[in-house]
């Protein structure tokens, strides 16, 4: 009986977690607008960035004009290790095809990705590919 209850609760939690995954289709449904390379080149230098991954990690940094930054992570998910605060050097650039590209050299792994960025209200979302099923990670950019 207890095993059945635990199994039901586990399935419910898994369903809840998967329901929270945002996709490109969700972003489009909210009238998300894709930023151009020129818009990203205006927005990124000096931007304070908060990045929330699908794995649950929150990372933050400030983009230096020379394409570098020092990132910090709350350690949830995989960036920076599990459940441990971390900092690491990184680089950013806007590719000619309009993708924001970031590399962060964490002690346990390296984040190396490029994202197409969409704006929805005052929030931003990044996707690795223009596929409606692609997971979308949330970003905040401010100056």
Written overview of the protein:
There is one protein chain. The protein is α+β, with helices and mostly antiparallel strands and 143 residues long. The chain has a single domain (22-142), classed as Lipocalin, CATH 2.40.128. It has 3 helices and 9 strands. Strands 2-3-4-5-6-7-8-9 form an 8-stranded antiparallel beta barrel. The longest helix has 18 residues, at 2-19. The relative contact order is 0.20.
Radius of gyration: 17 Å
Structural class: alpha+beta
Number of strands: 9
- Mean pLDDT across all amino acids: 85
Number of domains: 1
Quaternary structure of the protein: single chain
Query: Level of helix content?
Result: 10-25%
- Stretches where pLDDT falls below 50 for ≥5 residues? 1-19
Shape type: globular
The description of the largest β-sheet is:
8 strands, antiparallel, barrel
- Supply the CATH class: Mainly Beta
Number of helical elements? 3
- The first-to-last residue Cα distance is 55 Å
CATH fold group: Lipocalin
Q: What is the chain-wise order of helices and strands?
A: HHEHEEEEEEEE
Name given to the CATH architecture: Beta Barrel
β-strand percent reads 35-45%
């Amino acid at each position: 009986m207890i095993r059945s209850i635990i199994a039901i609760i586990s399935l419910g939690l898994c369903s809840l977690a998967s329901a929270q995954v945002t996709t490109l289709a969700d972003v489009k449904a909210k009238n998300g607008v894709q930023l151009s390379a020129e818009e990203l080149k205006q927005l990124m230098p000096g931007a304070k960035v908060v990045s929330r991954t699908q794995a649950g990690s929150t990372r933050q940094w400030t983009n230096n004009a020379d394409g570098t930054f020092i990132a910090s992570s709350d350690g949830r998910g995989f960036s920076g290790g599990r459940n441990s605060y971390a900092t690491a050097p990184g680089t950013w650039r806007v590719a000619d095809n309009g993708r924001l590209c970031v590399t962060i050299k964490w002690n346990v792994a390296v984040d190396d990705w490029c994202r197409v960025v969409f704006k929805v209200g005052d929030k931003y979302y990044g996707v690795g590919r223009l596929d409606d099923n692609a997971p979308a990670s949330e970003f905040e950019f401010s100056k």
